[in-house]
Each structure stands twice: as structure tokens, then as C-alpha cells.
Amino acid sequence: MEETYLALGSKILEEGHVKEDRTGTGTRSIFGYQMRFDLAQGFPLLTTKRVPFGLIKSELLWFLNGDTNIRYLLQHNNHIWDEWAFERYIKSDDYQGPDMTDFGHRVLIDETFKENYQLEHKRFCEKILTDDVFAAKYGELGNIYGAQWRHWEKKDGGFIDQIKNVIEMIKSTPDSRRLIVSAWNPEDVPSMALPPCHTMFQFYVNDGKLSCQLYQRSGDVFLGVPFNIASYALLTHLIAHETGLEVGDFVHTLGDAHLYANHIDQMKEQLSRDVRSFPKIKLNQEKKSVFEFDMEDIVIEGYDPHPAIKAPIAV
Fold it and tell me: What is the CATH number of the domain that holds 228?
């Protein structure tokens, strides 16, 4: 099943359109691609490079908790959302340190700047963890995934818990064609640190199995998409567990699927590696609700990947 992801990487390298992008890094891009993973055949955690499953778990549980502040992530040594919060901080009047403008690019070419950045970033994270007021102000990312999934604000007041609602619909009306959760709220997009890349997902029940299709408007194929595959596969497992279903397929539909210009060599290296068997996932059977799960309740067994391949994140 991993071959469908590798085929995407190969297709972009061979056919991708060279495009400018928001980050200024530059990309090779194609539009419209679909991958399918049979979750009964193994958990789709890529083996051609190590993908850190602990980060995927903590991020998904963060979303499911309706949380939008990076403090929870930092408490679990998860730094994948740091840059967006840090960027907001350095642009504020409260920041009095050295110039951090365009830190995502400068850190790659200037060793002295990299040292300063690492020091300021470390101070920022420590303050998020230890200072409640600072964390509330600068750890907050706006109405991103957790807020839209669990606390979609209604025009007439109150909130919609989309995750809770879709679980109840799967239990009561499994043949419904409205088993949908959306993260794309046009009113909130301007206030988000990063508008949702994975914009909506839909569930489908057949023959006692739960399948999920994700529509992702924008996919960072080397760094982000492997996380997205595993995250939504895990979400499907968790919801299937609560609703008493087996897992079916995870279908991943991408809009703008791209490789950043500084990920090209890394993708080529990954494509040169042989594919290994996907691992299995084990859930704590004593936990009945999606919202009861903690990190230790989700375990991957038999994961034997090739080594990780480092690449810079585009902010």
C-alpha cells in the first residue's frame, strides 16, 4: 500500500509544475491525486523513512480534545506547531529579542542566526510551559482544527461538536451520506495561524466496516502527507472502536499536492528505498469513547522502518 504514496512522490518529481508559494520556498506541484489504504492490511505508517508516531498521536488527541494551544503539545515533546505560534510572538510588541524576520529561511543558511534562533525558540517554549499568561496569549493558534471539530461557533450562539455528532450519526444512521466533519470555516480562516490543509472528511459504513475519505486542499508531500495518512488512519481506528465497527479503507484525496524545492533530494532518497510491511495498531479495549484515550492507550507493534530523512519545514 505504501507504493501509492511513493507513486505520488515520483509523479510530482517527473510531472510537477514549478510554482511559487506562500512561504517563498518554491514547489513542484500537481493538482488532484487520490490514494487508498486498506486499514485491515496494516496501519499505514510509512516504512521507507521513520515517521514519529508519538507526534501523530499527541497531535490527534490534541485535536480531539478541542485544544488550540501548543502547551499540550510541548508537554508531550511535540514541536510540530511551534513555528506558527513563534512567528506570531516575534511579530508582537512584546518580543524584544534579536531580529527573527524570515527565520524559516535564514536558519538554513546562516549558522550565527541559527544559534540565535534556537536560543529564542527554546526560551519561547519554556515560557509557554511555565507562564500561564504568556501561554494563553502566544501559545494560542486561533480557531484551527480542534476548535472547528469540537466547538464550531453557531451564528445564534452556542457551539457544534462535529466529532461527537458524527459518532452518534454513525451509530444511529450508518447509511447516511452526511457523515461529514469540516474544518474549513471561511469566517475564521483570517484569524487562524494556518488555515486548514486537511479541510473535510467523510465516513462510510458498509458490511460492518468504517471507511474514511479526507479531502486535503494542500499537501506537503514529503513532510506533511505521511503524518496526515497516519493521523486519519488512527482517527478511523478510534471511531470504529467506539462505534463497534471494523476498519475499512482510508481514502486520501489531495488538491494541490506539492514537494518543496528543498525536499527534492530527500524525496529521491526515499524513493530509492525498499518497502517493508506496515505495522499493526493496538488500542486499549477498556477505553470505550474516543475522548477517553491517552497516549499510552495507543500502541504500534512491528514497526521496522528505514531511518528518518531530515528536511526543513516551510513556514
Answer: 3.30.572.10
pLDDT tens for 139-173 read: 999 889 999 999 999 888 899 999 999 999 999 99
* 229 contacts 44 by C-beta, under 8 angstroms: yes
Q: What is the percent of the chain where pLDDT is above 70? A: 99
Judge contact between 261 and 12, C-beta under 8 A: no
The residues that are catalytic are: 197
**Which residues, 6+ apart, have CB-to-CB distance to 244 below 8 Å?**
none
Mean of per-residue pLDDT scores for the chain: 95
> Same domain for 190 and 285?
yes
* Distant-in-sequence, close-in-space partners of 177: CB < 8 Å, separation ≥ 6: none
User: Is the separation of the CB atoms in 258 and 185 below 8 Å?
Assistant: no
Instruction: Flag whether 127 is in a domain.
Output: yes
| Residue 189: C-alpha distances to residues 70, 155, 172 (Å) | 18, 16, 32
Look up the domain containing 133 and give its range.
82-140
In a domain, 309, yes or no: no
Place of cell 542566526: 113
Q: Would you say residue 37 lies in a domain?
A: yes
CA distance 258 to 199: 16
pLDDT score for 280: 98
pTM of the model: 0.94
